[in-house]
Design a protein that fits this description.
It is built from 16 helices and 16 strands. The mean pLDDT is 94. Bound molecules: histidyl-adenosine monophosphate.
């Protein structure tokens, strides 16, 4: 027996039966993003590994444990993109976009790859809807980006999600925060898991996201507030919150929200939904004012977020039974000659932007073809038998009313087009 192949672990086929949900979410997102002047950008799905190492941080979990590096490259190392921000920063710098526009607003929709242990809501190939606004560091922009993420989730029909925000402050403030955290954690170091004991020196922020029960208890008892923030950073964060209040966005300030990627400074945020269990983040983002410079680009600030499409679909009610699509026209034939004629006919009908199909099988019975037309919810059936061939006509059957009419080959495209346009909702 030949081996049957399965979809790789942590990935999924998106079959036509569920594609309408994906397209619905994507279309809605594009519509909304364009009203904020975000322009779509598409970057390659792999980049030099060093781009991600430098952007996300050598000690981040994504770089340490989840990067999918391509092995066939002899000289340079390339990795599948684990996220979009680094690639977009690279494209922004490489294309000198700062010289063309002060504030560049990009959005992207596409697959990302992380070599994680798969579980519900955690995949190795998943999809982001993301935005990056590069060139301006203003609290109003942070608030707008946060409110946009909330707006998107609401428009997707998701209810009951929570927004958590925090400020890491400037690079200097972030350093202070890590000192404060180490001071606070020191006394309970032995209670932490082995991973977190290593993280204590390497990347103390990661301890805050550890899922180990003992670590969670230690983290729960921490006394971190906002004492790491300078006066200027505190003011900035206050302004972000004020702007969110102006837009009536509800949020919770969580001083333990630090995010897993190193590039963040100042505002960070996360949107979560209880129904998702342990992988409860629907999306997340924040400000990253030093990434462009870190990558050899101009000294400009940026802010953005990414939403996980698979998790959106998990949290979205009513995604179990897909909307069934219907066909405009199905051509039913009898005999070999009629199939050939139908083949040409389909070509004509489709050129009028009408959705049409047939069975392609000359031996298929009239009855089974009619059954197929029914199953595909065809609005009209075109019958092509011996009589029609002799008379050089097609019998058009309206599947709702049962009415039939003979139409010449030359006119059929026009006639069907008129019928569809004047009764778009037939069936
Ligand atoms: P992130 O938090 O790593 O941020 O990912 C954003 C969202 O992607 C998560 O909240 C989650 O919904 C989804 N996600 C992440 N990993 C997986 C996975 N393995 N399986 C399924 N869904 C997943 C970023 O990637 C940043 N680039 C966001 C950003 C943009 N920050 C500024 N600009």
């Amino acid at each position: 027996m030949l081996k049957k192949f399965s979809v790789p672990r942590g990935t999924a086929d998106i079959l036509p039966s569920s594609i309408s949900y994906w397209q619905g979410v994507e279309q809605k997102a594009r519509q909304i993003l364009e009203t904020y002047r975000f322009m779509e950008i598409r970057t390659p799905i792999f980049e030099e590994t060093a781009l991600f190492t430098r952007s996300l941080g050598q000690t981040s979990d994504v770089v340490q444990k989840q990067m999918l590096t391509l092995s066939s490259q002899k000289e340079d190392s390339f990795s599948l993109r684990p996220e979009g921000t680094a690639s977009i920063a690279r494209a922004y710098i490489e294309n000198d976009i700062d010289k063309k526009q002060k504030l560049a607003k990009f959005y992207y929709i596409g697959p990302m790859f992380r070599g994680e242990r798969p579980q519900k809501g955690r995949l190795r190939q998943f999809h982001h809807i993301g935005v990056e606004a590069i060139g301006v560091s203003q609290p109003l922009l942070d608030a707008e980006i946060i409110s946009l993420s909330v707006r998107l989730l609401s428009e997707f029909g998701i209810k009951g999600f929570k927004l958590k925000i925090n400020s890491l402050g400037s690079l200097e403030d972030k350093k202070n925060l890590s000192i404060l955290l180490r001071d606070d954690l020191k006394k309970n170091l032995s209670a932490l898991c082995e991973d977190c004991q290593n993280r204590f020196e390497r990347n103390v922020f990661r301890i805050l996201d550890c899922k180990n029960e003992n670590c969670k208890k230690v983290v729960h008892g921490l006394h971190i507030k906002d004492s790491h923030l300078s006066e200027e950073s505190r003011k900035y964060f206050e302004n972000v919150r004020e702007a969110l209040d102006l837009l009536k966005i509800s949020y919770e300030v969580n001083p333990l929200l630090v995010r897993g990627l190193d590039y963040y400074t100042h505002t960070v945020f996360e949107l979560s939904h209880e129904s998702l269990g342990s992988q409860d983040a629907l999306g997340a983002g924040g400000r990253y004012d030093h990434l462009m410079e870190e990558l050899g680009g101009p000294n400009v600030g940026a802010v953005g977020f990414a939403l996980g499409v698979e998790r959106i679909l998990l949290a979205k009610p009513g995604t179990e039974s897909p909307v069934e699509s219907s066909l405009d026209v199905f051509v039913v034939t009898r005999g070999e000659e009629a199939v050939k004629k139908a083949f040409v006919l389909l070509n004509t009908i489709r050129s009028h932007s009408i959705m049409a199909d047939m069975s392609y099988e000359p031996d298929s019975s009239f009855k089974s073809q009619m059954r197929l037309a029914d199953k595909l919810k065809s609005k009209y059936v075109l019958l092509l038998g011996e009589d029609e061939l002799k008379e050089n006509v097609v019998t058009v059957k309206d599947m709702k009313s049962g009415e039939q009419q003979k139409v010449s080959f030359e006119k059929i495209g026009e006639v069907i087009k008129n019928k569809i346009c004047s009764h778009p909702e037939v069936n």
